[in-house]
Amino acid sequence: MFDTECPAETAPVSRSVANAAAWPSPEDTFGAIVAAGRPGPSGWLALELDAATDDPALLDDRSLVDAVADLDRIASWAAARQARLLAEFARRRPADPRDSTTGPEAISRWAPDEIALALSISRSTAGARLAQARRLTETLTATLAAHEAGEIDGSKVRAICDATHPLFEDAAVRVQDRVLPAAARQSRAQLVAALRRAVIAIDPEGANERHARARRDRRVVVGAEDEGMASLWALLAAPDALAAHQWLTRLARGLGTDDPRGMDARRADLLVGLLTGRVAVAEPDLDVDPSAGADGDGPREGEVAPVPAGGAGPALRVAPVNPGKPLVHVVVPFSTLTGAEHQPCELAGYGPIPADLARRIAADAVWKRLVTDPLSGALLDHGRTTYRPPAALTDFVRARDVHCRSPLCRRRALDSELDHTVPFPHGPTAEHNLTHGCTLHHHEKHSPGWTVVQHPDGTLEWTTPTGHTYVSEPFDYRPEPDPPPRRPGRSRRVALDWASTAEHADDAPPF
Q1: DSSP letter, residue 419
Q2: 320 in Cβ contact with 281 (< 8 Å)
Q3: Tens of pLDDT along 57-76?
């Protein structure tokens, strides 16, 4: 019933569709699909799903979720099959020898126009799709196979292609092989973090060089938006960006609960005030008069803060909710800190960063000692050396979790809420009954139909109202394994960049 090859006696598709009235009911059809062990995506499975989902109202909640997942697998299968066709088309359109662009990856400058016309897309988009298709069929073949099997969707495929873009072919394959086993159960954000870590581990020197080049390109850009608005966009080193955002958040919270604006609006107004000189940061112990404005008449409409300070000067003064430098949490293996190795390091709230950048942060930081199990990657002990730290237990759980413990959330634990898995007093206030969750997932956990079970190793098992279960694991502190040896004869660079073969992109961004 679910074979991917059509038997000789099978009626043509048109006849099967015409006789659809004689097919089993949607409930029976979908039950048969589930009973078959979730067969691989194919055109035949698409036909079965078409019959099973004709009337969604006849499906129960669990079947609805399963059908949504299966249709997503069908979409991935179709996209992968299209990639194979695009790659074959690209091979049939070699570059003209008279063109300036040469090499085995080059294709005819007119090939993207044929695809663009067929799909009603721009030629630059068509060229990028042709280049990605060739990369998948010639180098990242395991990624294409996972895509065709419905294990990963198009956004994850693009993430793998983008991450391996600057690498030589051999290194790209090793990165792919390292991340694919877990990619099916990860969100795109989690996969991107895993890719960054793998790229740094496979090519540490290249990662340091690419970061140095990227840092030289830091900039601030103004863009026009609708309705009289504009965007102020900054490209910064990751720790600088995170520290700046955290400092704005501290100042925004320091405005107090009476401020009617949301946190986003507060941060935006404070940013403008700080950059234009209308706001200055007060000392933490400075006495402030909440009724006085910069000119003594109270805050005007559009002013940033209802917490101005006395004293001369045109600027309003605001105080952060707590003093001290913004906390940037970086996990650095000791061997990397000493320079013996160049393992990727973890910047909480961002993801993996190169060793050189982590060592620069280490030069101006207060360190905590973490003892981890080298086999499981689990946190075993937590030292406390910071000034006025929170409770040791909170320190330990925060360092163990690193992120919100919803299976797909990457909000850092520092900005999340500590929660009892089994509500207190029925459950103890102990490491094995505490986790971090962002506000949304903290509330979700306590919603009707949701259950969470915490296992001794820190793993959480989430069960949704439909009975589906998903697993969240604590942060893995193990160092990246040594990369396998290079494969001989696979040193060609993977970067099949359409921009290098196109004269001009008709819809490229201005910067």
Answers
A1: E
A2: yes
A3: 888 899 899 999 999 999 99
